[in-house]
Amino acid sequence: MKQMNMQTYFRLSLTMLVLSAGLSSCMKEDFNTSEGKVGEMITLLDVRQAYKGSDVTLNTASLNGGTTISGIVISDKDGKNLPANSLVLQQTAASSNSFTDMTRGIVINMTTEPAYAVGDSLHINVSGGKLGRVGGNLTISGITAAQVTVIATGKAALVRPVTLGKLHSTMEYYESTLVSLNADAVDPAAGTLAGSKQVADQTGDAVYVYTRSAATHASEPMPVSAQFTGIAARLNESGNDTFNTKK
What we know:
Oligomer: single chain
Keywords: Signal
Pfam family, one: DUF5689
Protein name: DUF5689 domain-containing protein
Number of domains: 2
Strand content: 35-45%
Number of helices: 3
Order of helices and strands: EEEHEEEEEEEEEHHEEEEE
Strand order of the largest sheet: 4-9-10-7-6-5-8-11
Number of strands: 17
Distance between the termini: 38 Å
CATH architecture of the largest domain: Beta Barrel
Structural class: mainly beta
Organism: Phnomibacter ginsenosidimutans
Shape: globular
CATH class of the largest domain: Mainly Beta
InterPro entries: DUF5689 (IPR043744)
């Protein structure tokens, strides 16, 4: 089986969003990587939970006193497989029990093209940003370069193995994070990676491996069977949140 590690996006067209109550109770209450005042840091898990189905302006009121998120850049600006001005940030927040560590991700849409590399560890002051679904994916929009601080470089983000069955049933846990998937092409004669190519693994409905035509790896051949490593994302071309939500 071939291993594909280029910047790939798994896109789901019909996903049931399953939210589990009480997830935040598994977090360490003193999780705070900030060098600034106590309480300004907020986890990506808590930011995502601030979204209730409509756009939210981010401030201390909507974020329970928080202003700043942290995480590792998992999107490759040089791979050219992202919308303009966007990056994807992933955070694994440690708990007292490593089995309950929380990994979440989010798309950041900036006012200018981001210059941050894969593995850059960032602190982002999200005050004044807008939290909403863009193209189906939870996104913080309106962030300027002045709101971003590079804390470190060359950091490795967690890659979680997943099956399609698990991805479909618990997409809220995996959206905008790195996943690894063993799957076969639905169409063995799919040609190159460019565009949306369906893959399946017999555990759930097929998903699309999506590669923009401008991506540096778009001309690579689509494998018949491979281990794909990429960012899990939703497919919603209208940009509206049309997914069913079960709480």
